[in-house]
Structures are given as C-alpha cells and as structure tokens.
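Work Package 4 report. The design task specified in the project plan requires that, given a folded chain encoded as structure tokens, an amino acid be chosen for each position. We show below one input record used in the internal validation round.
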C-alpha cells in the first residue's frame, strides 16, 4: 500500500507542477511544486511549493494558488483517474531556506583542530 501512495504522490506532483507552470502566472520569478503528501484515504493532498522572489510576491502567489485551488482540483480530476479527487492544501516549502541557513552556519564555524597525537592507541594491547 505504501508504494501506491508514493506513486500517487509522484503523479499528482508531476501533473500539478505542469499545470502551475503552464496555466498560472505568478509575480515570483520561479514557482515549483516540490512535493506532494497525500493522506492514506486519498482525500487530502498537502502540496509543498517553493518560490523564488520577495516575501510580498510569495504572499501574493500563495493567495493566487489558494484562489485557483478548486480549478486546479477539477483539472487534476480530468487528468488523473482516482476514486476521490484529493482536496489540495498548499504550503510553502522552506527546505531550501533551511538548507542554505545551515550551510551559512557551518561556513562560520572554525575549522577543527588538527590531530597532532596521531592515531589513538589500543589500550587492550
């Protein structure tokens, strides 16, 4: 059953990504569907979307996505045959920002001290 959910997630991600880039216009420079997590009953899908742009553009684009949610759901129902068409819940994907913040913190750390003692000795010998 788990593999079925993974396949459905991937199909929905691919189809929504295509519809979002082809049919909708956004203020942000780039809008991409990163991931979809569908519930086991296939009735709700959490869609993680990433944006490249200012925070104002992000808010405007999220509002546009929420406004077009029913249109996207009906278009998705025509493209993917499922028993239920999942209700879409859009969320901002912040993994890129978190990753870059972690890399910045790591770059600010001092380098590790060199090991001058050599390899540790085995006390059992």
């Amino acid at each position: 059953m788990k593999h079925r959910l993974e396949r459905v997630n991937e199909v929905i991600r691919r189809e929504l990504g295509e519809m979002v880039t082809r049919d909708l216009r956004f203020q942000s420079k780039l809008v991409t569907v990163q991931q979809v997590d569908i519930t086991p009953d296939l009735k709700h899908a959490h869609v993680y979307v990433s944006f490249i742009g200012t925070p104002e553009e992000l808010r405007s684009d999220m509002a546009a996505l929420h406004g077009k949610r029913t249109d996207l759901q009906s278009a998705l129902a025509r493209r993917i045959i499922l028993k239920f068409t999942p209700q879409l819940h859009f969320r901002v994907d912040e993994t890129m920002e978190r990753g870059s913040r972690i890399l910045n913190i790591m770059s600010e750390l001092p380098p590790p001290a060199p090991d001058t003692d050599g390899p540790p000795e085995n006390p059992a010998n």
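Strands lie at 30-38, 44-52, 87-92. Validation will be extended to a larger panel in the next phase.
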